[in-house]
Write a structure and sequence with these properties.
By secondary structure, the protein is of the alpha+beta class. 43% of the residues lie in helices and 22% in strands. A hairpin with a 4-residue loop joins β1 and β2.
């Protein structure tokens, strides 16, 4: 395997922005020298310095923490089915999910879907995320809600989200799966 196949890249944008700052300062010094000594390519160096300043600014913005993803242990994969951008969302999970895995998945979805840009509507100040499965029988699709989580719209680290597992939903899912 070649050199590129063995390289590992990190996402340490703080380190990248620091190196970008050093290179930008180096080009700024070189551009200043080019103007002092009247070099012919001095205006090209102005463009290179400006480009490095913009690139360094972008790397610094990425270093501010845009990639904060919390991983909840035992959470299953889910698909976002509905999100009104404010207080309600629905996720779809697989039919073989257990109540304990569903609880972890709801916690994961609550962390993933949190945003300071969500707005409270009609006096409701919590985000409600429901989890559902779909069972296909006799050319019909039956949605079954298995649980929900309510979390704060204002705090990223909500200490006590309300998790409700719908046992009757699991019972209905079991009966439909055993029929089919």
């Amino acid at each position: 395997m070649g050199f590129v196949g063995n390289m590992e890249f990190s996402l340490d944008f703080g380190q990248y922005s620091l190196w970008g700052l050093y290179i930008t300062i180096g080009f700024l010094i070189l551009t200043s020298l080019a103007f002092v000594f009247q070099w012919g390519f001095r205006f090209r160096l102005v463009g290179v310095t400006a480009f490095m300043a913009v690139l360094t600014g972008g790397l610094f913005a990425l270093s501010l923490g845009l990639f904060q993803r919390v991983e909840i242990p035992n959470a299953a994969k889910y698909n976002l089915v509905y999100d009104n951008g404010a207080t309600q969302a629905v996720i779809a999970v697989s039919t073989d999910i257990t109540p304990s895995v569903l609880e972890a998945t709801l916690r994961q979805a609550a962390m993933d879907l949190f945003s300071y840009g969500r707005m409270a509507t009609k006096g409701e100040d919590s985000l409600t995320i429901r989890a559902r499965v779909q069972v296909h029988q006799d050319k019909k699709t039956i949605p079954i809600y298995l649980g929900q989580i309510k979390r704060s719209l204002a705090r990223r680290d909500d200490p006590n989200p309300e998790i409700t597992i719908f046992q009757d939903g699991f019972a209905r899912l079991e009966s439909l799966l055993s029929e089919g």
